[in-house]
Amino acid sequence: MSKHTRILMCPPTYFHVNYAINPWMKGNEDQVCQESAMEQWQALRDLVSRFATVEEIEPQQGVPDMVFTANAGTVAGKRAVVSAFAHKERQPEEAYFARWFRNNGFEVGELPAGVRYEGAGDSLFDRAGQWLWAGSGFRSDEAAQDFLRDFLGVEVLGLKLVDERFYHIDTCFCPLTGGYLMYFPDAYDVASNERIHARVPAEKRIKVTEEEAAVFSCNAINVGKDIIMHECSERLRAALAEHGFEVHTTSLSEFLKAGGSAKCLSLKLDEPEQLEE
Ligand code: ARG
To answer: What Pfam families does the entry give (predicted)?
Structure first.
């Protein structure tokens, strides 16, 4: 059913940790094993391929975090807003991602100068409604939300992050098929939690614990009723199964050293899902 979903990934040919722009990277400089990173990425790619069609962007030297394609931009229909990275280390990725979007038939929107925004790391569509949750607090500015609304023609709801370990919303927030939501509430301020409560009914909110969030369980790829993640506690697996979801785990320990996991390593190209035929 969901084979139609296309997902963009970038091989970790040049993946490395040689700077620290989030708390997970600190102390992990030069600790990546290139060989196991490649193996783990390939295993993830194989797993994703069971549920979706994987497309690849060519990796580039000098931008080790380009493997995290979630940060390429935000896609809606045939339009894409390209990221404007907060840190200079990642800014050279913008041109590569913009070129890929243009070469693949997307109309590319560029944010007003000076507005920071990190793509699908900080923007996620609800899987039942048509609205886009957009994050701010660490990497993306609230000002980006007006542009997303205008250029993509979608409703945008803001979420404010308050815990630096969870610096993108996709590290602690995962909308699931049917309007469910798996998330770590403490990563958000009070107003954001109220906004979540107003949109997602209690029976559809699946909360994860701090320990589960800390192994990036929310940083998951959801296609249909299948969910791919790095690690899943028995408790969370059972909670998701109660709503008909099946969890598939695959180790991504090398990428956790850079502060990323399954979802960060992927970008859905057919968004929002409801636009698919
Ligand atoms: N090292 C990368 C960074 O700090 C990790 C990005 C993770 N991506 C994500 N979508 N959460 O930017």
So the answer is: DDAH_eukar (PF19420)
